Queue: 2 jobs
Job 1
Amino acid sequence: MGSIANPSTWARDNEPSHPIQKVDYPKASSAPVPTEGTEIRQILSNLLHNFNDILFRKEFVKLPEVLNTESCYWKDHIGITETKFTTLTGAARITEFIHENGCLIKSIAADKDPKSTSFDPADTVKCLQSFITFDSEIGTGRGLVNIIRDVDDGDRWKIYTLFTFLYDLHGVSERDVLGENRAQYSRPDNFSKEKNWKDYVEEKKRFVDDEPTVLVVGAGHCGLMAAARLEMLGVKCLIIDLQKRGGDMWRNRYHNLCLHDPCWMNKMPYFPYPANWPLFASKDQIAGFMEYYVTALDLNLWNQTSIISSTWNAETAHWTVVLENRSTGSPVRTTHHPRHIVQATGLNGPPRIPSFQGASDFQGKIHHSSAFSGATPQYAGRKVIVVGAGNSGHDIAYHAHLHGARVTMVQRSETYVVGHSTMINAFKSRYNEQTHTEDADLISAAMPISLTSRIGHDVSLMLYRHDLPLLESLQKAGFKTVTPPDLPSILILAQTRAGGFYVDIGCSPLIASGAIKVHQGRNISHLSATSMVFDDGSEVEADEIILATGYVGVKVRTRETFGDKVADSIETIWGIDEEGEQRGVYKRYCSNFSFLFSDCLDRPSKLLGRSW
């Protein structure tokens, strides 16, 4: 399908995700499971008391007494140790790790109302589930525990999955400035009483006689959330972004872009979306919200600002960063010395541009999807080829067709497709109007990746059966979808590939009906003056070719901005490591630099905020 520009860089910076271990559910017990709250709380209390006693006495060899014999998991984010994100599998591995590294956690307690539920979609593995809180040597934390009857140990209640993550540091808590502890006035007492809140914000933002502790590069969701979390802890942040206005990374995308997942899943901390917003907010609603988010939370954002140079000083443990701000028309350079840099430029690097033989002969327009601002009435009758069958490819094909274009989609491999309403119903039990997003995020994060994959596969099979008429019609139209038995979890596709799927918002029926044509599984041979020619000799006429071919890895941005020394010191970004943790993101690279990636959403971003 043509060669990829700069293939050596792509290969070097994007190693494949580590294979996810295939696991089975634990053996199900036939013993009854309590449903009454008092009994559930007593069972959990007894088990956690025994667990805490082992931690207190440091008798780690006894941990198997409270862990399910057949299989068990402890997923931990800065709870057991100060720096490590880890997923421990099996009682032996958990015991070995705690024995070698110790455990900062001193005690765990059930939180909120525990419940009786099922661990698997088929409702065969019964468990008791509870949110938890814990106290550690350095702070307090939250988590989730699932306990089941151990069929290999007389049906005793044991821990099957345990998730712990650090939430607050001792002596440093966002609770100190929230709610009942909020400040009385909008500006500090030591600020001139002749000046108002706007004066204070503008002066604070300039950092004239002050230094930011953290420089956040990128003002998208992750950059804003990371800065917001840190500012609530009293950590001074400066956010920089190349765009002219806050939210432009959404505002400047193609005309009809909207969220593909419900707004509950995209909530930002401290400041929820309006209650009357649609489930799938438009790009301009999101852009406007992000712009005001900066104002509402007093964040320090410099737009139209880039990094000219950056140097790490190991002796002083500070960066020297030269910034260039063009927001006033003429460039202004300033030098800053932050202790930390957070790269929040998004998951992707520059557009991935295939090169085609004969491209210079083609008389029409060729451009990447990132440069597509939207179809117009002038598209009527235009012959458009969209190369790529992910979310962007479908969106662009759909809207070009709505404006009268004759669209052909080029699909190289198979695509996982799920209906919009089907996906909403699948996620609605967790993300909805009643459940706090932070609780829903916690439940999602609590599951070890191997179990997420197994449960996700079973859920996808249920979704496949629901969407079968649509999927069969797509196959008949020549569009290749993922079929059993290899159905993936859409969450796993997002975590390992950051793509490979389409949540249908209207394009699939057009493909199924033939209104949008498909060229599937054929490599592109070359371009002629008026068409795209494939290796089987077939060709499709085109006035415009839109390349929805994705992006190269984010480390390319790191290399361009910070140089080879920084980029080479950082592990691959995204995908799964050997323990099942997300690679590279919200981790502090403290061996050589105080440099972090923040390609994450609310809960991991909060963890990043807890790392100082």
Job 2
Amino acid sequence: MKVLIAGSTDDVEDIMSSILLEEGYDCVFVKDSKEVIDNIYVEQPDVIILDILLSNPSSLEILSQLKSAPSTRGIPVILIASKRSRLKLVKGYELGAYDYISRPFFKQEILSRIKNITFACDRIKELEKLLDRDYLTGLYNRRFFMERFLEEIAWSVRYKEPLSLMMLDIDFFKRINDTYGHGCGDEILKQISSALLSVLRAEDIVARYGGEEFIILLPNTSAEGAITAAEKLRATVQNRTFVCKDSNNGDMRLSVTISIGVTIYNGETELSPDRLIGQADGALYSAKESGRNRVVVYKGT
């Protein structure tokens, strides 16, 4: 488990490292408040320990930003506080902090609070997985995707950050089902899902949209980044050998290709999710009409 620790003094790093590293935790230490957010996006920690004494920006400003961003709001935050910082601690709870560790530090308290938070989060994730995942592929389902899509559009509008959307379809999938059976088709869907996840970033959101269609959201991604990612996805699938198990004929090895439609949203004008999905779907249609196994970017009308 990875723990990111943002401390205002050397004793935070010294004491936390001696306690957590000894227990087998993977620790990342940050002293500069200005670097906390960037490190969180890079490191993708499971838990964040935030010193309430941080300033410029303050720990509460950092916490507020974490809890307002869709990609980081689910990471549990533990505050380091003392008796003199009770008012800040109350404000921290209001902003979404999960728990706190008191100064002076006590080893068993630190370990107990981290273990409790990870146990609770693991149970929550198991329940969320039942509600948010596609039963066959393990990817997010359409309902969850649409919820996150609305959040990411709002974030893009607020901060004028680009947002890219892909619609992806397996070429000639009906032929696979008709020739090799639906069991083989299901295996292809699962293996395609695995291939997509192997290429995409942790912050990207990929869902099964329906049948053999997938939808992918790339936060803070420009046209250049989206096209690069789409081409990498297409090439990864094209160069992969897909295997379907057959009790009578042994393993069947198949070549599969995908077509991808891409649209870019710059956050400057408000567009509905349906409008953006329509743009990506139109580009996908063009990709299939122009020969399949290719990427087409929506150009507008």
